[in-house]
Queue: 2 jobs
Job 1
Amino acid sequence: MPADQVAAAEMLDAMLLLNEEQVATSIRTALDQIAEGPRHRKKRIALYAEREFAEAAIFPSVTVADKKGKLRRRAIGRGGPPAVKPTRGRARVGSEGLVAFLASQQKDAWPKLFLNHPGPDLMRGKTAPAGEVIILTDFIGSGSRVRTMLDKFWAVPSVRSWVSRKLLKFRVVAAAATPSGLTKVRIHRLRPEVISQWIAPVVDWTYSRSNYFTWCRLMDNYGPVSGRGAGRRGYGNQGALIAFSYRIPNNTPAILHQSEGTWRALYDGPIPPALNSLFGVRQMADIISGAASDNGIELPPSLTPEERQMVVVLSLLKGRWHRGSQIALAARSGIAVPDLMDALRKALAQALISQSGRLTDKGYAFLIAGGVPERKRPTVETNPEPYYPEALRVPKGSI
């Protein structure tokens, strides 16, 4: 049907397309920023690539007697789990190969800070023990794989002891993630801090209101019923609209990632040469124009590129700023989280927003000058014939 073809084209246009270099740059940038921060203070950081593990725990443990003779379980080994290891007899290596390479690169760049897939004996280092574990991944879809890996850390008695004594913290660094995936990882019992440089659009009423029903009809009526362990709407019913130059995650609708019979996926494996140009870096001007159009914001042509970006960000900033607000902003604007945070820092420096993230009078004036109309305030009806007392009496009980 022509209408379905139009809807399919709009779905493809809404997809976040990331190439391998963008993924690598996102993860490297996040790790560099962590390395330059003061948080680690004489403690090292253990890096692990997110992947599937057949083992029940991330490290092996043995029973040993402590100083008081009490038997305890203790994790052992200088070497940690292999960075890349196909499971269940499969020969294929997924995105963990790229992520493992990035972990190795960052270890070489910051040799005194990062540990590359260390075992518990190295993490206990006497002079500089590991005070943090960072799990690296290209994409958090449903969050189940990262949560499973966190469970396998929690299954190690020594790790539980370090966490309970506040000697070890966890963090997850991803190139991209869905909003629900971020939430599910953050509420894990280890309470990891989660950083994602890009927020993937999803087929959800909150983020794709204008196309939600037509896209749901596409997913339910076309293509294979299931694929790669996922249903029509993708693994975990995510309906994620994202594709990497080296793969399409199974969190995307099956019509995008699964070939079956006469139906063909958008592509299988890495992108074909014909799609190379589509995975180039989108210009910020195009992102801002699209965000303005999608959110009904009119941008006068007289504005500079930086002013256009600021107008869009401030227009979408609603209510008081709180942790996690950047996720909703990134999802609505299509702007990467680092660029979004840069814009907010500039807005704060220019006194366009307050410390709590609210628009200041100067911020409202900036939007009005940029062509954004002031929000209409409700008219409160007043008494057309106001009453004025002609005589005053002393209140009872005042004498």
Job 2
Amino acid sequence: MPLSVYILALSVFALGTSEFMLSGLLPPVAEDLGVTIPQAGLLISAFAIGMVVGAPLLAVATLRLPRRATLVALIAVFGLGQVAGALAPTYAVLFASRVVSALACAGFWAVGAAVAVATVPTTSRARALAVMIGGLSVANVLGVPAGAFLGEGLGWRSAFWAVGAASAIALVGIVSLVPALPRPAERPRMKREMHIYRDRQVWLSIGTIALAAAGVFCAFSYLAPLLTDVAGLDDGWVPTVLALFGVGALIGTAIGGRFADAHLFRVLILGMAADTVVLVAFALLGRHAVAAVLLSFLLGVACFCTAPALNARMFDVAAAAPTLAAATTTAAFNLGNTAGPWLGGAVIDAGLGYGATAWAGAALTTAAIALAVVSLRLQRRTPGSRIVGTGSATADPVCSEA
């Protein structure tokens, strides 16, 4: 992998820590700002909403701008958003800071993923994306538990200050080590790139990504109260279990990145099936402390195993518009990240309990599997299509050109 891909992974570590750390900070945030835990959970949705809106918006706005300068500007805005969150006097201000940070984060993901894919051969796309997503996995191993630890010892605001510092380090890395990329021979044209949305396979990929993400986030967003109120663990266990989830995520990313290029649909379907099984097991066994800890680890493995394949699939079906493909993937993931916490909060507010969020999540991942199967069958019936990751392929001029 080129060095720039690893620098992007380092940057994603800061982005991912901010995106996920509130899962371990909901109780102290809710108490400090005088809101309920489901209302605090909407801060996760706020970030995801900003990602949904920001990914395509910033992809369009920056399409013809130099890539390195765009990455520098976006990581700088993101870091300032963390500072604003640390200083937020009210829930409304914190909510707004999350949206602004998410807009910058979305743009960074879209541009960064396009840069990562552009620096490697088409046969290594999933592996390059796995390295970049690995920054997110490390964020779950180190950043999110560290945020929970800081929140418990120094207050939840200290976690935002720490992410702001990490963003500054990422900024230095991009300026120093990511080279300026040559401009394309032909200037990108948004009208041409928008043609990807005429392809039903693109919409099937969007639906699959959104449902898979929503299923996991429906339960994961409320992992802290699941562990303490349902499984009966002490608050001090939350950072440890979040770290185990992160270790599972790192393992899952490595597995998915290793096999997705050659067996894309198998990784997709089996990974989402594993998500469903783990979520059902969580709903049935989550009241037992040992089972809750083990299942948190397995959920990290299962959901991150599918991430490289979900990303690579979108680049395959939207290869003619790589920047917009990256933005669409980011928006789809965060559409799910928005819907998941909202649905989980609705389940909790309905009086069904924290454990019911796992049942709702399992229903969503089952729907994602169904869409993936439809996409596979449709591609097998399409003359001249390329069956990615099934061991047989015919030339696809669009994919070959990319």
